[in-house]
Amino acid sequence: MRAFAVALLVVTAAAHLYLAPEHLQEMPYIGVLFILGGVGSLTAAGWLLLRDTPLAWAAGGALCAGMLLALILSRTTGLPDFKEEGLEPLAIVCLVVETLFLAVWIYARQRVSGRRLQVS
User: Fold this and answer.
1) Is the dihedral of CA 26, 27, 32, 36 positive or negative?
2) Beta bridge partners of 79
3) How many CB atoms lie within 10 A of CB 51?
4) Tens digit of pLDDT for each residue in 55-106?
5) Distance (Å, whole) CA 33 – CA 83
6) Contact in structure between 79 and 30 (CB atoms under 8 Å)
7) Count of CB atoms within 10 A of residue 54's CB?
8) Closest Cα to residue 60, out of 113, 114, 111, 108?
9) What pLDDT, on a 0 to 100 scale, did the predictor assign at position 114?
10) What whole-number distance in Å separates Cα of residue 30 and Cα of residue 14?
11) Using alpha carbons only, what angle is made at residue 113 by residues 51 and 45, rounded to the nearest 5 degrees?
12) What is the 8-class DSSP label of residue 85?
């Protein structure tokens, strides 16, 4: 399960880093956020790969939740001076991958909590 979560973080990182140059030209602060999201996702993936800790999972979860929120806001209310229309293929990939990471994180937390309850 952890390997799958790491792979999900790597996919979202790759998508964000791939799209960053386009967004840097269109709206520089959005491009910077894409770079930060990509680098942050790679960092969380490496951390989770090396150490299976609740904090590593939470870092990945916080990044995915934040990027999902930004994706939704950018297509609904819009972000400052920036509003997208529709969902291009990589946006759909990110939507699916980030949602899957959050689901895997919740599932992993429930498994750990269940084990703790059984030990008590």
Assistant:
1) negative
2) 82
3) 9
4) 999 999 999 999 999 999 999 999 999 999 999 999 999 999 999 999 999 9
5) 15
6) yes
7) 12
8) 108
9) 59
10) 16
11) 25
12) -
| Greatest C-alpha distance within the chain | 56
Query: Is the pLDDT reported for residue 117 higher than 70?
Result: no
Summarised one tens digit per residue, pLDDT across range 18-35 is 999 999 999 999 999 999
Buried b (16+ CB within 10 A) or exposed e, 92-108: eebbebbebbbebbeeb
Position 50 pLDDT exceeds 90: yes
Residue with tokens 């008590």: 120
Q: Read off the tokens for 61.
A: 């979860």
Q: Which of 67, 66, 120 is nearest to 93 (CA)?
A: 67
